[in-house]
Amino acid sequence: MVEGRVAEHLFLTDYRLQPIIDYRHTENGGYPDDDYRGLIDRVLAADTLVFATPIYWYGISGLLKTFIDRWSQSLVENRPAFLAGLAGKQAYVIAVGDDDPHLKGQPLIQQFQSIFDFVGIDFAGYVLGTANTPGDILRDKEALAKVDSWRDNWT
Questions:
Q1: What is the Cα–Cα distance from 71 to 83, expressed in whole angstroms?
Q2: Which one, out of 3, 74, 81, 135, has a CA that is 20 to 30 A from the CA of 120?
Q3: pLDDT digit string (tens) for 22-69?
């Protein structure tokens, strides 16, 4: 998808991410000591974001949800800087499932739209692909063509 371009791939399974601790209404007892800060710094340094997830139970993967939940930590720590760091970035979503993903993946896309609206990210596009096992997505020519069309928009 990013052939010929400089891109950093972050696989959340390679990192330690703890669930969010919600300190909005209690005294801040400190956030988890894990890899979140390093990950979010790398996200904030990027110009374009691509979120890729399997469709699990008609939503995003638990690990990606945990990562996005942790954005609440960044909002509590320094809301203006965090929102300024995300504002204006372009983001794409790729989600793959096997149970009518073009229909049943729509709530997942709506969730991303709401997230991006909240933090000021430009939702540049999405693909809902059909696949169940590794390599299946290569048979979804429509999804692959849509992703290929995005390349023309990336500098």
A1: 10
A2: 3
A3: 777 777 777 888 999 999 999 999 999 999 999 999 999 999 999 999
Give the whole-angstrom CA distance, residue 136 versus residue 49. 24
Residue with tokens 């504002």: 87
Per-residue pLDDT, 2: 54
pTM score of the predicted model: 0.89
Distance CA 77, CA 26 (A): 14
- The residues, ordered by sequence, that sit 6+ positions from 115 with a Cβ below 8 Å of its Cβ are 68, 121
Average model confidence (pLDDT) across the chain: 90
In 3D space, the residue among 60, 42, 51 whose CA is nearest the CA of residue 108 turns out to be: 60
pLDDT tens profile 68-107? 999 999 998 899 999 999 999 999 999 999 988 888 999 9
DSSP string covering the chain, please? --TTS------GGGS--PPP---SSS-------SSHHHHHHHHHH-SEEEEEEE-BTTB--HHHHHHHHTHHHHHHHHHHHHHHHHTT-EEEEEEEESS-HHHHTHHHHHHHHHHHHHHT-EEEEEEEEE-SSTTGGGG-HHHHHHHHHHHTT--
